[in-house]
Design a protein that fits this description.
Elements (H helix, E strand, L loop, with lengths): L2 H11 L1 H13 L5 H58 L13 H22 L6 H30 L2 H23 L1
């Protein structure tokens, strides 16, 4: 794979994380750049690991991974999105302390759910002559950039949406999960 193909693949793989990050950023109260970078690092690290895992699984049992990855991503994203929608509908009982940052494990779970497609790509890369380390690092760096940018874009969208931001963020996650499932069966 040449450099331009690797970059296109990397930024294509980062789009789910970008959309999820916009939703996450919109639910925070004026997130700082450090929070955006923290989110980007978590998403980027996981997006770096998943193609490596997929590549390793591709060497062992590609059919199983390809049969189930879309269901796992769908269920995780629907669960997380549904939780966000419920929280948005319930509202925040403690209006004096708006959410300043998302929990580490919530971000990790969201990152895993949005990066399962990269694992499937890793399975496919196992059958090509590519440098998997370079490709995975490129995907991770693209995701770092796009997720950090997504949080900062969400910072400006959040105040416009108010409490509806969390509902919208949840709907985005559910939509990403549904799109993953749809593309598997439509493709």
């Amino acid at each position: 794979m040449n450099l331009s193909a690797t970059l296109l693949l990397a930024f294509g793989m980062s789009m789910d994380a970008f959309a999820a990050s916009i939703g996450k950023g919109a639910t925070l109260h004026k997130p700082k750049f450090s929070e955006a970078l923290r989110t980007g690092l978590i998403f980027g690290a996981i997006e770096t690991l998943t193609p490596l895992i997929g590549w390793g699984l591709g060497m062992l049992a590609s059919q199983f991974v390809l049969e189930w990855n879309h269901w796992i991503a769908f269920l995780l994203l629907v669960f997380l999105g549904g939780r966000m929608v419920l929280e948005g509908v319930r509202g925040n009982d403690d209006e004096d302390t708006p959410l300043q940052r998302h929990g580490f494990w919530l971000l990790v779970t969201t990152a895993i759910a949005t990066s399962l497609d990269a694992m499937a790509v890793g399975v496919g890369l196992a059958f090509l002559q590519v440098n998997i380390i370079t490709t995975a690092l490129t995907i991770g760096c693209a995701t770092l950039i796009m997720s950090t940018l997504g949080i900062m874009i969400g910072r400006f969208i959040g105040p416009l949406l108010g409490k509806r931001a969390e509902i919208l963020g949840g709907i985005v996650l559910i939509g990403i999960g549904s799109q993953i499932l749809w593309s598997h069966f439509a493709g």
